[in-house]
TrEMBL record, chain A:
<dbReference type="GO" id="GO:0035999">
    <property type="term" value="P:tetrahydrofolate interconversion"/>
</dbReference>
<protein>
    <recommendedName>
        <fullName>Methylenetetrahydrofolate reductase</fullName>
    </recommendedName>
</protein>
<dbReference type="InterPro" id="IPR003171">
    <property type="entry name" value="Mehydrof_redctse-like"/>
</dbReference>
<dbReference type="GO" id="GO:0005829">
    <property type="term" value="C:cytosol"/>
</dbReference>
<dbReference type="GO" id="GO:0071949">
    <property type="term" value="F:FAD binding"/>
</dbReference>
<comment type="similarity">
    <text>Belongs to the methylenetetrahydrofolate reductase family.</text>
</comment>
<dbReference type="GO" id="GO:0009086">
    <property type="term" value="P:methionine biosynthetic process"/>
</dbReference>
UniProtKB/TrEMBL annotation, chain B:
<keyword id="KW-0411">Iron-sulfur</keyword>
<keyword id="KW-0472">Membrane</keyword>
<dbReference type="Pfam" id="PF10531">
    <property type="entry name" value="SLBB"/>
</dbReference>
<dbReference type="GO" id="GO:0046872">
    <property type="term" value="F:metal ion binding"/>
</dbReference>
<dbReference type="Pfam" id="PF13375">
    <property type="entry name" value="RnfC_N"/>
</dbReference>
<comment type="similarity">
    <text>Belongs to the 4Fe4S bacterial-type ferredoxin family. RnfC subfamily.</text>
</comment>
<feature type="binding site">
    <location>
        <position position="589"/>
    </location>
    <ligand>
        <name>[4Fe-4S] cluster 1</name>
    </ligand>
</feature>
UniProtKB/TrEMBL annotation, chain C:
<dbReference type="InterPro" id="IPR022026">
    <property type="entry name" value="DUF5981"/>
</dbReference>
<protein>
    <submittedName>
        <fullName>Methylenetetrahydrofolate reductase C-terminal domain-containing protein</fullName>
    </submittedName>
</protein>
<dbReference type="Pfam" id="PF12225">
    <property type="entry name" value="DUF5981"/>
</dbReference>
<feature type="domain" description="Methylene-tetrahydrofolate reductase C-terminal-like">
    <location>
        <begin position="118"/>
        <end position="199"/>
    </location>
</feature>
């Protein structure tokens, strides 16, 4: 099923995210996904997230699909040139994978193979354009595809709480122009900023899913504030986590915070995307508290 | 082949759509670089104007500029260039030029051209693509053939399966690089070495742009520190900088030229057979800009004849046979103390002592001390920016008190408020000593200057220390300054304190081809050959001997010439075995010229005998510092071409 | 224009491999970095072991004619050496290697790119000679060199506080571009069609 269909039906679309392991044994990951994520509309599979080498996104998507889940194939421009990217897109279509999230990708220097050659032959915008082109039955080189062309729901990302949100909005506009169907956002901790962002983003007429990362600990918050782009966790929120250490450790505080953010932002967006980062088990409770 | 490098105009269609909705255009085109320097103007400017006119656009003006990427020069050129009413600037240049204009214009700037992809071409410019600067040179495993550039796939572990008949699969005209590598290694018997090497893996993180950027920034800062341009040749002062001054043994015969200064040669006032004493006047100043000459020994005049001269070929000289006694002339006696001397008396002492600029130019110091305009600052040039030379450095260390005394005398003579002793940072001992000795003098300051050639040139020194710019064709006094050399200043002190005229000086005898380098106090008129012999002679053959430093010195084809007032050094160095090659318009000369000139035009115009062109490009402003020739990648003898041009231009007036 | 850096000492020592070397220092482009001190030190050490048959320090060995004129004087010393060690950029090493084809010619340096050899150098500007100038879309700031990923369609999600994800001290190129366009009233430039790079632009030059 294409995630766009759910948006069209007016659903508040919930997606979650899994990261493939460094290795090819994914039984545990599949088990967790089946147990905790069967309630969500679709599951994102990251593509060598943070430039750390892992099991491939495409293969993991196929495995999830075989288990009855709806995967979203994340595809970055970091490791593949336009030939490999298009080839993988066709492979996805063959597997019946219909949802894409198209990204530029972190720089190679940030990961565990800093010596690698960064490719960036295409970027997120030109990758969306490429998918659109394939959907019209022609590849980027202008050659016709054999048979019926593939059809995808083309997603992209945006950072609503970026310190340079105007620059992000400009890029978002270019993604829409290139043919993007829906957006997932970077993790949001400042609902006000998100609401302001949505005021501006709604002109594009594309569904936006609020990005959520459950705050696990004070340390994690501090780390993200210092190192992760587009994320800022307010001090009051960190204080909340500090207040009851046991409660925080058990994940109760984090889920409470996340649920609160979702409740505040829900009227302004078309869905939520949960990046559980190993806390997949908390997703059902989070959704319950958020009233979804 | 079309005559273009670096950039090419975008296609007509693209340009037309670029111009849509834009009007009131100013067009800038860069005269291309790294190409044969044939035409002065490239055609792009005209082509763009034509195209814009066809589109019914108003063109407010156009300009063709050399080295548009040189921000400092471009800023000067663009100033007041954009006419009122200009709304858009269209630039035909490589990306560097376009970005420079975009930063300076203050209005929308558009690129009318694409930079051509010349990655891999460097060194002698567009000869052959050869090095991709991969930061992990593989040439050692490939027999000196680059696998990154020469192999289409940049393979580093051997040939792929695509080669056919020794040709590349990508280009049938191109030899397979790995085939070439294999053959060369085979020839050198190094195949086993190749087979046994570990698997090669490229590391793309090695190109560290941060380090590169920091480096570029620092080089840029150094280049522009104090004044535009300049170079930093390897100093090689370690040969002599720690060697204390030694008195050179008295010569048996001295040959004293009657011209060791700018202006008219002196008239001899002695005759053959006359007996002379040390400090006795033997030649009289012949004009306002001239200088008297004195005997450096006591003895007998044995000839007044033409003799070999380091800078003039031949010159009338007084030849004196020493009696070995060094009897002082009666005129040599101390003057009144400095406080009692009037400014005019000081100038007169300096004039009578035959003191001239001892840095080489030999301008009569007494004339300098009577500036036509008010002067507030005296600069003592302790830079000694010429490589190898250490004469001034030693004088500063061993005669610091005399130098300070001399400076005080100049301050008084000129009526200036402030004296500044400028020393380059490669002489920390001299800086410390002079700072200590001048601590009590409220009107004397020691300024430390970052080492850069030609810092000692008057105009550069003034710009560096005071920020003032001597106008084209002007003198230091035009900006309220007088510059004096260290040895000259010490000579002034001697003349006042002891009454001794300028009859000896400190000479550095050095160079990688000299056996025993040193710093010597040498009598004027001493034979250069004797000096070299005393220093153990030279090492090996194929040597170049120069009077002065490596940058501004004069080549001595015959060492049978006398040491003169301006002889700060005698150097023996390796001969340069290069020949002049055509200019490739690399722009390095324009980048290093401290007078902000474009020396490449002088080479071109001299060959064409276009003297008006030379004049228009301000050749008379050239200070002949030789930075351009030093940096020239084609080894063009720019300074001799400039000197020829200057000679003709001078005659044109 | 380039920066040359000395290879690791162990590497250079292993190149000479206890045998005899002739050393060529190219302080070529003069203001471009040459590891003068390190080179002198290393050469002194090798010479102390009696491994050096000769050393020359010169410039622009990439100019084959002048390089030959200079080497000719030292052919005996080169003959006597097992390896010719060249301290220069890759072009210099190859020029010598081609001239001394029968000789083992080794590079003692790695070469780093220095942007802006087109004309006056080194420069504060950068141009990667991509062959399809993007400056019209970016207000005159080059996205190929100002952005770590050379993105041509806008900012990625990695910038934090206006700084690049790869280097926290580097300003995000696309942030700079956006500000410049805003300042010039040209934000409409961002409404251009999706840009796709052409990596085959060097063909024109090689013709």
């Amino acid at each position: 099923m294409k995630i766009t269909e759910a948006f069209e039906r007016g659903e508040f679309v919930v997606t979650a995210e899994v990261g493939p392991p460094k290795g090819f044994h994914i039984e545990h990951m599949l088990e967790e996904a089946k147990t905790y994520l069967s309630g969500v509309t679709a599951v994102n599979v990251t593509d060598n997230q943070s430039s750390v080498m892992r099991l491939g996104s495409l293969a993991t998507c196929k495995a999830l699909k075989d288990e009855g889940l709806t995967p979203i194939f994340q595809l970055t421009c970091r490791d593949r040139n336009r030939i490999a990217l298009q080839s993988d897109l066709l492979s996805a279509a063959m597997f019946g994978i219909e949802n894409l999230l198209l990204l530029t990708g972190d720089h190679t220097k940030l990961g565990d193979h800093p010596q690698a050659k960064p490719v960036f032959d295409l970027d997120s915008v030109s990758l969306i354009h490429t998918v659109k082109q394939l959907e019209s039955g022609v590849d980027l080189g202008g050659n016709e595809l054999v048979g019926e062309p593939p059809k995808f729901a083309k997603g992209a990302v945006v950072s609503p709480c970026s310190d340079s949100v105007d620059v992000q909005l400009a890029k978002m506009e270019r993604k829409v122009a290139a043919g993007c169907d829906y957006f997932q956002t970077q993790a949001v901790y400042e609902p006000e900023k998100f609401i302001q962002f949505m005021e501006k983003a709604k002109q594009f007429g594309k569904p936006v899913q609020l990005g959520i990362v459950i705050p696990k600990s004070v340390g994690m918050c501090r780390y993200m504030n210092a190192n992760v782009a587009g994320i800022h966790i307010p001090e009051e929120m960190i204080d909340e986590l500090k207040a009851d250490k046991e409660k925080t450790k058990a994940g109760i505080t984090g889920v409470e915070i996340a649920a609160r953010i979702i409740r505040e932002c829900k009227p302004y967006c078309q869905g939520v995307h949960i990046m559980a980062l190993g806390w997949e088990s908390k997703v059902p409770e989070l959704l319950k508290q958020a009233g979804i | 082949m079309e005559n273009y490098t670096k950039y090419k105009l975008k296609s007509n269609d693209e340009l037309v759509s670029l111009l849509a909705g834009k009007d009131n255009l100013f067009i800038v085109a860069c005269n291309k670089c790294f190409k044969e320097f044939e035409s002065v103007d490239e055609p792009e400017c005209g082509e763009l104007e034509k195209l814009a006119a066809e589109q019914g656009k108003t063109i407010t003006g156009s300009a063709k500029v050399d080295f548009l990427c040189n921000k400092i020069q471009t800023e000067k050129k663009l100033k007041d260039l954009l006419p009122e009413g200009t709304e858009n600037v269209l630039v035909a240049a490589c990306g560097l030029g376009i970005q420079t204009v975009a930063d300076l214009a203050g209005m929308p700037v558009f690129a009318a051209s694409n930079s051509l992809n010349y990655r891999g071409y460097h060194g002698m410019a567009l000869t052959k693509k050869g090095c991709d600067a991969c930061a992990q040179c593989y040439l050692n495993v490939t027999g000196g053939i680059c696998p990154i550039v020469d192999c289409s796939k940049s393979l580093v572990n051997g040939q792929c399966g695509g080669a056919k008949n020794g040709k590349c699969e990508v280009d049938g005209n191109k030899d397979c690089a790995w085939e070439k590598i294999y053959r060369r290694l085979e020839k050198q018997g190094r195949l086993e070495e190749f087979l046994n090497q570990p698997v090669q893996m490229r590391d793309y993180s090695k190109v560290n742009f941060k380090a590169v950027n920091d480096y570029v920034k620092s080089v840029r800062e150094t280049r522009l520190d104090g004044y535009y341009g300049g170079v930093h040749p390897s100093e090689r002062k370690e040969y002599t900088e720690h060697i204390a001054l030694e008195r050179f043994p008295d010569p048996e015969v001295v040959v004293i030229p009657l011209s060791m200064h700018a202006g008219a040669p002196a008239n001899p006032v002695v005759q053959v057979g006359d007996t002379v004493k040390v400090g006795q006047k033997i030649g009289e100043a012949a004009a306002f800009i001239s200088s008297p000459i004195h005997s450096s020994v006591s003895g007998t005049v044995i000839a007044i004849e033409n003799h070999g001269h380091a800078t003039r070929g031949e010159c009338l000289s007084v030849v004196i046979k020493s009696d070995g006694k060094n009897t002082l002339d009666e005129s040599v006696k101390p003057h009144k103390d400095l406080d009692s001397l009037t400014p005019d008396e000081i100038v007169e002492i300096v004039r009578e002592a035959g003191i001239v600029g001892m840095g080489g130019a030999g301008f009569p110091t007494a004339v300098k001390l009577k500036p036509a305009k008010p002067v507030d600052t005296i600069l003592l040039n302790g830079c000694e920016c010429e490589p190898l030379l250490t004469a001034d450095h030693r004088v500063l260390l061993e005669f610091a008190d005399d130098v300070i005394f001399g400076l005080k005398a100049i301050l008084k003579a000129v009526g200036a408020e402030k004296g500044v002793i400028v020393i380059e940072d490669n002489k920390p001992d001299a800086i410390a000593l002079l700072e200590e000795k001048t601590a009590e003098c409220s009107n004397i300051e020691v300024v430390v200057a970052k080492t850069k050639y030609p810092q000692g040139a008057e105009k550069m020194l003034i710009k560096r220390v005071t920020g003032r710019k001597v106008p084209s064709g002007g003198l230091p006094a035009d900006v309220g300054c007088v510059v004096s050399n260290i040895s000259t200043t010490k000579a002034i002190a001697d003349a006042i304190k002891t009454g001794m005229p300028l009859v000896e000086r400190v000479v550095t005898v050095t160079g990688e081809r000299l056996k025993k380098p040193g710093n010597y106090i040498v009598k004027i008129g001493t034979n250069t050959k004797d000096l070299i012999d005393y220093c153990g002679g030279t090492i090996g053959d194929d040597i170049t001997i120069k009077a002065g430093g490596p940058m501004m010195g004069f080549v001595l084809s015959d060492t049978n010439v006398p040491i003169m007032k301006g002889s700060n050094g005698i150097i023996a160095v390796d001969t340069d075995h290069t020949v002049e090659q055509p200019c490739i318009k690399c722009g390095r000369c324009a980048d290093v010229c401290p007078m902000e000139l474009s020396p490449l035009y002088y080479a071109k115009y001299a060959d064409e005998e276009n003297w008006q062109g030379m004049k228009d490009k301000n050749v008379m402003d050239c200070i002949e510092c030789r930075c351009c020739e030093y940096i020239c990648s084609s080894k063009i003898p720019l300074v001799s071409k400039i000197k020829t041009g200057k000679g003709v231009v001078r005659g044109m007036k | 224009m380039l920066i040359t850096q000395l290879k690791a000492k162990e590497t250079i020592v292993s190149l000479v491999d206890g045998k005899k070397a002739f050393i060529i220092n190219c302080q070529g482009c003069k203001e471009v970095h040459f590891p003068e001190k390190e080179a002198a030190e290393l050469e002194k050490e090798l010479a102390a072991n009696g491994q050096v048959t000769g050393v020359i320090t010169t410039d622009y060995i990439c100019n084959p004619d002048n390089m030959k004129l200079r080497l000719q004087k030292h052919m005996d010393e080169i003959e006597a050496a097992d390896v010719v060690l060249v301290l220069s950029c890759g072009i210099g090493v190859q020029t010598v290697a081609e001239y001394l084809e029968e000789k083992k010619v080794c590079a003692a340096c790695d070469t780093f790119p220095l942007p802006g050899f087109q004309g006056v150098t080194p420069l504060e500007y950068k141009c990667d000679q991509c062959g399809e100038c993007y400056l019209n879309l970016t207000g005159g700031i080059c996205p190929i060199t100002a952005c770590s990923k050379s993105l041509v369609n806008g900012q990625c999600g990695g910038s934090k506080n206006g700084k690049c994800e790869v280097d926290g001290e580097m300003e995000c190129g696309w942030e700079r571009i956006y500000r410049r366009l805003a300042q010039l009233g040209r934000l409409d430039a961002l409404k251009c069609p999706t840009q796709i790079r052409n990596f085959a632009t060097d063909e024109e030059v090689s013709k």
